Amino acid sequence: MLKEFKDFIAKGNVMDMAVGIIVGAAFTAIVKSMVGDLINPIIGLFLGGVDFTNSYLVLSGEVPTGASLEAAREAGAAVFAHGAFIMAVINFLIIAFVVFMLVRFVNKAKEAAIRAEEAAPAEEAPAGPSELDVLLEIRDALKKQ
Does residue 62 sit in helix, strand or coil? Predict the structure, then answer.
């Protein structure tokens, strides 16, 4: 059973998947920073300086005025965190767009490689006598004997 497990892990697909998960986790951190540090402040600027990530409505419970979303949750209040939801949607859209662009790039690269293979001239046979020429030489050699 241990040998089967080693064979399974050694397969290329499992290793590719592991690399993809690791790169995906690192990419998620980049996207979160991009949304939180770049996009949300711009959206907040257009909304009149509202801190977009802390936009919420209190459904029940007591929350001090101007408290952050985290402080409201720690106070035990039920909150409708529409800002966090919109941020998750923006994260998704950015990730989906970047993945689309990567897949598009890879597909174009594959198509270019296929076109290059098709355009490359087929290997020509080495120059030399044809089969007919060889047979004629053999015939002539036998006639001389």
Answer: coil
pLDDT of residue 111: 92
Q: Residue 78 in contact with residue 59, Cβ under 8 Å? A: yes
Q: Give every CB contact of residue 35 below 8 A, 6+ residues apart in sequence.
A: 87, 90, 91, 94
Looking at the structure of the chain, the number of domains it has is 1
CATH number where 65 lies? 1.10.1200.120
The range of the structural domain enclosing residue 107 comes to 2-144
Average pLDDT over residues 121-129: 69
* Residues pairing with 57 in the sheet: 80
Of 140, 122, 120, nearest to 132 by C-alpha is: 140
Q: What does the mean pLDDT of the chain come to?
A: 81
Q: What is the DSSP letter of 75?
A: T
pLDDT band at 104 (very low <50, low <70, confident <90, very high): very high
